[in-house]
Specification:
Radius of gyration: 12 Å
Distance between the termini: 22 Å
Strand order of the largest sheet: 1-2-3
Number of domains: 1
Shape: globular
Structural class: alpha+beta
Strand content: 5-15%
Order of helices and strands: EHHEEH
């Protein structure tokens, strides 16, 4: 996945507040942080844009598997081992 639908309130209220126009995110921030930015429940799912150009509505579980390499989902901020 390249981009997710955003929740500007989550971006402004976050301890690491950013610009609500920010289109990208870093997966290493972890789901605890990203769940404040991505409105998984707004439509029952989130709209995402994939790298090959197609858009799709996905549920959180499927979205996280597309967001994290090899399905290794990070809950807390961390870096992947080399």
């Amino acid at each position: 996945m390249a981009f997710n639908e955003r929740d500007a309130r989550g971006i402004f209220n976050s301890s690491q507040a950013g610009d609500p126009r920010q289109d990208d995110y870093d997966a290493w921030l972890g789901t605890d942080f990203l769940d404040t930015w991505i409105p998984w429940k707004r439509h029952g799912s989130s709209n995402v844009l994939h790298m090959d150009g197609y858009a799709k509505s996905v549920y959180r579980t499927d979205g996280l598997l597309g967001m994290y390499p090899g399905g290794q989902i990070l809950k807390d901020p961390a870096f992947y081992a080399k």
